[in-house]
Amino acid sequence: MYYKSKPYKLFSCFNYTFLLALSMLCVIPLVHILAVSFSGKAPANANLVGLWPVQFTFDAYDKTLANENFLRALWVAVQRTIWGTGLSMLIVLLAAYPLSKENRQFKRRNVYTWFFVFTMLFHGGLIPFYMLIQELNMMNTIWVLILPGAVSVWNMILLLNFFRGVPKELEEAAFIDGAGHLRTLFHIYLPVSLPALATLSLFAMVGHWNSWFDGLIFMTDHKNYPLATFLQTIIVQQDFSKVTVRPEDLVNISQRTVKAAQIFIGMAPILLVYPFLQRFFVKGIVLGAVKE
Amino acid sequence: MHTSQTSHAVTDLVKKEAPPAHRGNWKRMLVLDAMLLPAVILTLIFAYIPMGGLVIAFQDFKPWLGFARSEWVGLEHFQYLFSTPEYVQVIWNTLIIAAMKIIAGLVAPFTFALLLNEVRLSPFKRSVQTMVYLPHFLSWVILGGILLDMLSSDGLVNQALGAVFGIDPIFFLGDGNWFRLVVVVSDVWKEFGFGAIVFLAALSGINPSLYEAAEVDGASRWQQTLAITIPAMIPITIVVGTLSLGNVLNAGFDQIFNLYNALVMDKGDIIDTFVYRVGIVDGKFGFSTAVGLFKSMVGFVLIVAAYRLAYKLANYRIF
Q: Does domain B77-314 bear CATH number 1.10.3720.10?
């Protein structure tokens, strides 16, 4: 056997070490941030924190959670994630069903498919989109965070491909029993495609939670910022004028440990759903990428 | 595959024997139309109306005059874009960064998948996968925040470099050449694990008996890799590679926007960040729309070409 040969054993040694180092490289930055967030102010500012907290304290989290701007942004993010994901999944579900039909069953199918797919290929671009939102008076409303992204053509294609794999006999049996399309979708297709829907929902949730640019350009009032946008202004732009008023807050918010705590809270929900995501996404990706 | 084909054949037969009730079908199709209605309305509003708004790329657009009364300037904005050296530099930056990302983004996952495939200890394999997929799901705001902290002159990376090699701190995000490197390396860091999934899927589809036969013939593992593994990965590599050609003008807005600053503008500014600053910050709607349209047009041509190519070379279709 090849793996008993000496050169291969040597290679294996190197390979395991290398892969271990690569994996460490992917998590060390996150561990570092976590360590900083639990450290005392002085060692953090002096850059003495590596991968383990120095002078362990919850101080940064106390300050973060006492900041009403942070909490408000958190609430906006939770709302947009729940409503945005729910609405998007409903719309995608309703659209994927007709598109999964054969041309014979639904003649206009091709027209609809191209209508949606074209939007993946060509965009009006940022400025016309921005002007449209202004024109619709959607600035500073939660709708601008939810509606424009609700029709995910990519999710639609994944789901319609999944629907095509559902045995036709199920649908025919339902039709013979007198079920209409809506009933067939919700009583036949929906239950059998729950795992696929769960995957797409998790992806949509992560997308909403991480999305920051729409909040930045469409919310002129910082009180409407979702968490990701709030973090972008605090941590990346380091622009505290927009989000805070009291001087004592300013000191707290620019503190290194508090920044780390905010970053960590910002990614915590993703770390929480990650184990579930991981179980599904491998299948999901392969579903979209490799087809017979 | 076979069973579903036969079942189609059966339903075809049934349909031919019993002529369809046309009236019922017509009504049933209306239900299908109705189910598509919400998606169609939202797509019309948020995707197609902005396409109409592209006309201002050919106007000296003044918001208070609107589309109808703003002056038409033809291709003036495009001429201005291509005749101003700083703007041409922005296009070059975009191309250079995107090209480096495309190449690195293909080589790294491919190599990683090959190496991971040699691991036979499955708990180890699973743990590695869990860790390397993770950065893909974090946003560039979070990762940008972490990188700004770690790459600062007194950050973790410079500390480590100083301790190991004894060199002075490097201004990773303050020097244009370093900036490009940081952008490409951090993008690879974020995406190589996730990008490897399709390659791993291709690897798991290889018939084990091929390896057994090679083993009997006395082939070494390296010879097996060259003769079996790599040829089996070629189709999916072609697909991934050609499809990524569509990204030649996508240098990654989220990442650059969260990492760049005035010091690296000459080498790090890309079309998307440029459009944002000129359009939304400075309010030059006409010109920035023209720049955006240029990008959309090139992107459109490339994506269509890439899909046709992927279909020709590897018989790949998305639906």
A: yes
